[in-house]
Every structure is written in C-alpha cells, then in structure tokens.
Amino acid sequence: MPDRCCVTNCKSNYKSTKGVYVSVFKFPKDERLKSEWMRKIPRQDFEPSQRSVVCEKHFHDDCIIRYDEILRNGEICRFQRKNPKLKPGSIPTIFSWMPIILFGTRTSEKEKQRRKIEEK
Fold first, then answer.
1. 24-26 and 53-55 as β-strands: parallel, antiparallel, unpaired?
2. Measuring CA to CA, which of 25, 79, 83, 118 is 20 to 30 A from 73?
3. Keyword Zinc: yes or no (predicted)?
C-alpha cells in the first residue's frame, strides 16, 4: 500500500484514485526545514509522524529531481530515477484546490495573494 499524502483534502494514493500512484516525500530531518513545511501545509495542530509524507503535487516541478546525469565518455547521459527526490531546501507550496480560509494566520499576506492569482 503506497503512502498517502498528509495534506488536507489531497487524495493522492488513496483507493479512490484507482491505482494512479504519485511520488511522495518524507518530512525533512532538519528541524528548521521541517517547521517550514509544517507552516506551509494548511493543517491545524498537525504533528507529522515518521511515516507522514507529502505528495509531488504540492511541489513545483523544478524542486523535483527525476533524472540522474553522469558523464560517460565525454557525454552527459540522463537516467530516469526509479524514485524521484527533492532538491535540498525544497518546500511544499502548491495547495491550489484549497480555499484560502483554511490557511488562517499561518500564511503571509503575500502568499495569500499569490494563491488567489493561481486560482484564476
């Protein structure tokens, strides 16, 4: 059973998605980065467990490493990774299907304005 995204109203990897699997990422071990993730994720009084994950839908594509590149005989070869990984310091920021009201005071005014623009 694949891990399910912990973001409110996200149904990634639930049975209702009928076998469509999306990659998920564990919370960072670095406490500063972990608290930034928790601040961004719109979920009240949430304390992630060791199994809590966030799916790829909440990260911009440029935050996700899907290929490894190696230099072989003077040429760069790209190989698709079996399991994508996040670039260091990546933070989940895409929550476009969620109403702004759920974000409460944890979200800055600048972030709320950006989300309003994304919804249009």
1. antiparallel
2. 83
3. yes
Q: What is the pTM of this model?
A: 0.73
Would you say 27 and 86 are in contact if contact means Cβ atoms under 8 Å apart?
no
φ and ψ at 20, to 5 degrees? -85, 110
Amino acid at 91: I
Distance CA 37, CA 94 (A): 12
Residue written as tokens 């994720």? 41
Do 78 and 69 form a contact (C-beta atoms < 8 A)? yes
> pLDDT per residue over 27-42, tens digit each?
999 999 999 999 999 8
Instruction: Identify the helix (H) or strand (E) that includes residue 119.
Output: helix 109-119
C-alpha closest to that of 3 among 22, 18, 16: 22
Q: Which two tokens stand for residue 52?
A: 């809590």
